[in-house]
TrEMBL record:
Pfam families given in the database record: RepSA
Protein's name in the database: Replication initiation protein
Source organism superkingdom: Bacteria
Classification via InterPro entries: RepSA (IPR046828), RepSA_streptomyces (IPR048241)
Amino acid sequence: MTDTALQAGLDSATLSDLLRLAGSPGFDRLTEQLRRTGGCTAPIRLTGAAKLLDPATKTVLHAYSTDAEPGGVLRVACGNRRASRCPSCAWTYAGDTYHLIRAGLVGNPDKGTPETIRDHPRVFATLTAPSFGPVHNRPGTRPCRCGQQHQEDAPELGTPLDPDTYDYAGAVLWNNHASELWRYFTIYLRREIAARACLTQKAAREQSRVSFGKVAEYQKRGAVHFHAVIRFDGPDGPHTPPPAWATLGLLTDAIHAAAARVQVVVPAAPAYGVSQDLTLTWGTQLDVQPIGAFGNGEDLTEQAVAAYVAKYATKAAETTGSVDHRVGNKEALILLDVPDHPRRLMEACMDLDAAYPDRRLRAWAHMLGFRGHFSTKSRAYSTTLGALRQVRADYRAAQQRTALGLPDPDEHPDSTLLVVAHWAYAGHGTTPGESWLAANIRRDIQHNREIARETRARIEASAEEEW
């Protein structure tokens, strides 16, 4: 291996494959494909062909086939939201989530919300799990219960003081039912709002609507908790103002009351260590904060909330030491070197799977029992992830039409084009050399984004000083 290869962190297999790729006639096109995926870690490989026809004259306006591509395949981004799987696609997903949440806070007519939405009462609520046993933590300036003052990155944070007495069964069953807890919370929230407004539930629905966008996050102890933007709207959603009685104080009180009412009962399974029925509830650490307008000096601003939700939309149980894929048995946990606490949680899922077969605990052991969606929203909150992806697809389609000299359908509504295509899945992933190229492309793109962000920040700061 050469000194240059050693400095670049290349092993012999990667270097050999990279040299093979660099000497191939399709190297430039391969690099272009990887760049178009954003440096995707595990791009999907497709084979097939497409033709663009004028249906009136049967003329072929454009023809494409993967036969001419490097390796005979077209590489497209995997689209995985997990940062542990694909940092590039996760960045795109986080960006879409950011714009979705922000559109529901500041308004964006292109994304289905008017700018007047900033005047609607809205809060940022955090609903947590109850205690399943004392764990190592950092309680302010005081020492932990173990007597030590833990550092912020201490590996023991979130792990039980006494693993033998920790309620692992209760912890994974709570995670497994967290989505039901949230569903009941939204039901009780509307009831509590109606009660505080001295209205029937029907009358409250006719005068107002509650919209939300939420994300799930794992605490270090392995318990899921939810961060949610909750907003008061008028009867027709974000385009109508909420009634006068729909105040920030009423919304805050209703959230606290609704969370306290929620209960989900899990039947006992004595043969599997659950000696009595479990009554699952939210934890007492419920935090509800008003969201301030961006630029008005508040700590919890619209931009900060959107960025926070987007950050955790790409993370999952792997942040606790678990893995980001399904595990078939306990022996695999040892081979994967899973730390003790998450390993015990995963083993509890496997042990309880037969007791609650409809809950599929073994299948979701790598998620520590949680089986819900990580980011969700109510229908009227703002735009959708699908709509944001469609805008991106339309933009790229317009670029392709311009490059091929084809008419714009918006400017020429009478022009009709027929697309005849056939695609087949040919695998996914990259060779060692392709992986190295993709990582460097991803690094360059990230570097360019950081430079652009810093430049934009300096321009905005300069404009404020001049003002």
